[in-house]
Design brief:
Radius of gyration: 25 Å
Shape: elongated
Largest sheet: 8 strands, mixed
Bound molecules: ligand BES, manganese (II) ion, zinc ion
Distance between the termini: 32 Å
Structural class: alpha/beta
């Protein structure tokens, strides 16, 4: 999709397809009033018939035809119901934009001019409204059929969205455009990686993709192989990988946009390219969805790409631990004890709690970059899906400032997270008679005890853990990666630059 901003004289348009906001009680804004005037009150007369429902986000398609007495400047109008000029909130605006664009995409229009950002959104500026529309357009036209042999013709004819703006708005509009394009490209990278099947998206493949992203975006990328991982002493990470024919990879991406001496932010992603559970084998139903168990890694790659695209003045390190969790004659067994890079030993009571076993070594490894803040992102527990469902990612951190910053980045992008506890009491269940800790506690509070396990390794920096098990992909008819939490993470880094 192509995006641009444009100052437009409505009377000069020809054959345009236009997205127009209509407010509560059929009130026309400046944009709609202008077109209404040009068309002998076509909009007001259409609305008087009552076909545009009162609900925010309702849409109505109006075709324009010139008559001998009246030259009409457009082919199509898609009228989109907004709340009122003052009161449209960001969720409503996003929803209304989604339904308006969806309606436009269902027509034969090849390009559209949007006035939707005329609607006022509480506490959000023009940049946010443009960015929202760019992201929604890319979301609606994203396709999951690259693996089909028999691809249908492109369902959407829409190839370009122009945003009508006046001169004063142009700086904010180009900021919104730039952010929207970069973040949605990062989201698309994360979706594509998530959706790629496990036989294609292996640890080696993730390493190759990271290198590609690094090349086109000036990010230094290092991909460590099994031997190098062994030399680092990552015994816990290697233990998970040992059951698979696919060798593990440790991917390190360094983006240096800030001052050389500035301590970086590190993003650490779980990259289990397929999670069978190992010897603690998972049940068969929906096991295919465990190809998404590398979505934390995918979000690190997507965010690194977005940050570099935006040229943010900040230093960011992305670390991905990639392995496949398989049962085999060489696989770890319940009761096995492994030594982590930190020196702490772990009794593996369940081989399906493998995410924490690979992340713990990454959390130790990342300390060498002397990061100020480390955020790990992982499809870590089914328990988090039970606790929070698919709307919020689980947020675990003892640091209130970091918690607030991540929550606010989530709120402003609609890629939200919700704080969960990490109290000392929850550590109790991880005790082992034989090793420094066990890798699981009882079923109760499973998302929290998993986070507590990680906390034992996140030392020497501010740390937050995002459990994205419920938010990284959708099941059922809409099965597919969501690209979350790329928007949240990128916004967090943008906000950090502003401070
Ligand atoms: N990748 C899974 C978590 C998961 C499960 C995410 C279902 C999304 C949907 C993780 O490796 C796992 O298997 N966790 C176990 C932990 C348990 C053995 C303590 C779980 O959640 O069942
Ligand atoms: Mn597992
Ligand atoms: Zn897993």
């Amino acid at each position: 999709m192509q995006f641009s901003t444009k100052t437009i004289a409505p009377e000069k348009l020809k054959k345009a397809s236009i997205l127009l906001p209509i407010y509560r009680n059929d009130r026309l804004g400046v944009a709609a009033a202008t077109f209404d005037k040009l068309t002998g009150s076509l909009i007001a007369r259409t609305l008087a018939r009552g076909d545009l429902a009162a609900k925010v986000g309702s849409t109505l398609l109006v075709h324009g035809f010139s008559t001998p007495s009246q030259a009409v400047t457009f082919d199509r109008l898609v009228l989109v119901r907004m709340e009122g000029e003052q009161a449209t909130n960001k969720k409503q605006f996003t929803e209304a934009t989604r339904s308006g664009l969806r309606h436009m995409i269902s027509t034969a229009a090849t390009e559209t001019i949007s006035y939707l950002h005329e609607a006022e959104v509480s506490s959000k500026d023009l940049a946010w409204k443009i960015r929202c529309q760019v992201m929604v357009s890319n979301e609606l036209t994203y396709r999951t059929d690259q693996w089909k042999g028999n691809r249908e013709a492109d369902a959407s004819k829409l190839k370009a969205v122009q945003f009508a703006i006046d001169k004063e708005g142009s700086a904010l509009a180009s900021k919104g455009l730039k952010e929207g394009i970069a973040i949605s490209a990062g989201v698309q990278t994360a979706k594509d990686l998530g959706n790629a099947p496990g036989n294609v998206c292996t640890p080696i493949y993730l390493g190759e993709r990271a290198k590609q992203i690094g090349k086109s975006n000036k990010i230094k990328v290092q991909v460590l192989n099994e031997k190098q991982i062994k030399a680092l002493g990552m015994g816990s990470f290697l233990a998970v990988a040992q059951g698979s024919e696919q060798p593990p990879r440790l991917i390190v991406m360094e983006y240096k946009g800030g001052p050389a001496k500035q301590a970086p932010v590190a993003l650490v992603g779980k990259g289990i390219t397929f999670d069978t559970g190992g010897i603690s084998l998972k049940p068969g139903a929906e096991m295919d969805e465990m190809k998404f168990d590398m979505c934390g890694a995918a979000s690190v790659l997507g965010t690194m790409q977005a940050v570099a695209d935006l040229g943010l003045p900040i230093n960011v390190v992305g670390v991905v631990v990639a392995a496949e969790n398989m049962p085999s004659g060489k696989a770890i067994k319940p009761g096995d004890i492994v030594k982590s890079m930190s020196g702490q030993t772990i009794e593996i009571l369940n081989t399906d709690a493998e995410g924490r076993l690979i992340l713990c070594d990454a959390l130790t490894y990342v300390a060498r970059f002397k990061p100020s803040t480390v955020i790990d992102i992982a499809t870590l527990t089914g328990a988090c899906v039970i606790a929070l469902g698919g709307h919020h990612s689980g947020l675990f951190t003892a640091n209130e400032t970091l918690s607030n910053a991540l929550r606010s980045a989530g709120d402003s992008t609609g890629d939200t997270c919700w704080p969960m506890p990490l109290d000392e009491e929850y550590h109790e269940g991880l005790k082992s008679n034989f090793a420094d800790m066990a890798n699981i506690a009882s079923r109760a509070g499973g998302a929290i005890t998993a986070a507590c396990f990680l906390a034992k390794f996140a030392k020497g920096y501010d740390w937050a853990h995002l459990d994205i098990a419920g938010t990284a992909w959708k099941s059922g008819a809409a099965k597919g990666g969501t690209g979350r939490p790329v928007p949240l993470l990128t916004q967090y880094l943008i906000d950090r630059c502003a401070k």
